[in-house]
Amino acid sequence: MIVPGVKPSSISRRLTWMNLLVSASALLLASVGFLAYDQYTFRENLVRNLSAQAQIIGSNSASALTFNDPAAAENTLSALASFPQIKSAGILTPDGKIFARFSQVSNEHVVAVPPVPAGSDEVSVFTGDEVFLVRSIKFQGKTLGAVFIRSSLSELSHRVSRYILIAGAVLVISLIAALLISSVYRRGVAQPIISLARTAQTVSEEKNYSLRADPIPDGTEIGLLIRTFNEMLQQIEFRDQELRKAQSELEQRVEERTNQLVVANKELEAFSYSVSHDLRGPLETMNGFVHILLTKYGAALDSDGRDYLQHVRSAARRMAELIEDLLNLSRVSTTAMHRQKVDLSALARLILQDLHRRNPERQVEVVVADCYPADGDTRLLQIALDNLLQNAWKYSSVRERARIEFGCEQRRSGQVFFVRDNGAGFDSRHADRLFKPFQRFHSSSEFPGTGVGLATVQRIIQRHGGDIWAEARVGEGATFYFTIGPVRQIRPAVESRSSTGT
Question: How far apart are CA 201 and CA 206, in angstroms?
Fold first, then answer.
């Protein structure tokens, strides 16, 4: 990724500065090393020269010390006048007193002379801008005195200045040469990287994977990087083409399936219309004639004939209910949804009150919790809840003291609603069959119904982006759980209890 505001050419400047800094650092370290070595060797040579001069003066001054002739000693010391770096010199007696003295400057004050350590013939001391050398004078194994020489280090300072000047000139010349050489060789390093960066930026901005970076013929890491980058672009281009092709095919398939679905929906609507009008008419006619037969000619029929007509009427009514349930099931999948806040607790109370009005003889304990409103279609959710509560009302009829509960609970996935009863129940191992049309666990003679209600509930819940499942035990009741998307947090539930019945 190319960072906005950063020019790819900055790598050239960075490489140049890197070369200059490396060259300058190497030259400075080398210069410092050579300067330190020069200082060390200069001091060693200076001490060695002063020691040789002190030894010569000492040898020539031995007779003057022996015969106590200071003039002869001073005459010997005067030979040092030809060495301008020597400030002063002198000969000392064994007790440390000055026997003879020489100075380049008249009336120079007397300086303290460091003593020669025991067991040594010579000592040299560097102090500031001068050096002291003191050497014992011996003759035939006897110490006659000592000679000292005080020399200036101005030559050393001059050497340092000259060395720094030469090192600076060499450094400048070297940096200029490094700059020129770097400007030549950086093209082979920086230019391919700059070209690669610009290609990557263009590919990123234009999403044009057919572009390629300019290859270089050498076998360096940069050449390998460019070749690898171009191969990667080639693979991306191929996959992009395949993806676009697959996307085009998918869009075409979706369009074909959509058209097929539209045709199927139209056919389903036509079928629903046919069932609604064509089948209901004959059923109503059959019910009408059965009613006429029972009313006008019932007395002429024996009990078996009247029972047969009642069976025909009951079968026609059951067929009408089945047609109505199938129409409801088809409408659930085809009608448009209008989402809004739906108070399922309030709907549950209304449905249970209506069930009690139709069956006032039932003794049923009703528990309805105050749950957070769901986001869904009011009409569809009312159909789903009506089916679930009617099932609970129906299958709990085997109990003298039935109990039906509507509530909600908080789980990790969010708010879950449930309808629970203490009725006949069923085997949970076959719970997946519940939500298929016409699948029933009990016979029609035991519990009436068409077997379409729970399939309708499942389609309504799935259209709301939720899920539904059941838990039950035979003879102990059943609980149907369902969710409605999007999931919302539950508020504290407040149960409202009521007991219906006589």
Answer: 9
Q: What is the pLDDT of residue 390?
A: 87
Chain centre distance of CA 292: 80
Backbone phi, then psi, for 376, in 5-degree steps?
A: -170, -170
Q: Residue 292 pLDDT more than 60? A: yes
Q: What is the DSSP letter of 279?
A: I
Is the CA virtual torsion 370, 374, 380, 381 positive or negative? negative
DSSP 442: S
Biggest CA–CA distance in the chain, Å, is: 186
All residues at 6 or more sequence positions from 33 whose CB lies less than 8 Å from its CB, including other chains: none
What are the tens digits of pLDDT across the range 104-137? 877 666 667 888 887 788 999 888 788 989 999 8
**Under 8 Å CB-to-CB from 75, ≥6 apart: which residues?**
none
Integer Cα distance of 234 and 217 in angstroms: 19
The continuous run of DSSP H or E covering 366 comes out as: strand 364-370
User: Between residues 192 and 489, which one has the greater pLDDT?
Assistant: 192
Q: What pLDDT score was predicted for residue 22?
A: 84
b vs e for 251-290, b when ≥16 Cβ sit within 10 Å of the residue's Cβ?
eeeeeeeeeeeeeeeeeeeeebeeeeeeeeeeeeeeeeeb
Q: Is the pLDDT of residue 93 over 70?
A: yes
The residues with which 138 forms a beta bridge, in sequence order, are 143
End-to-end CA distance of the chain: 79
Q: d(Cα 329, Cα 321) in Å, to the nearest integer?
A: 12
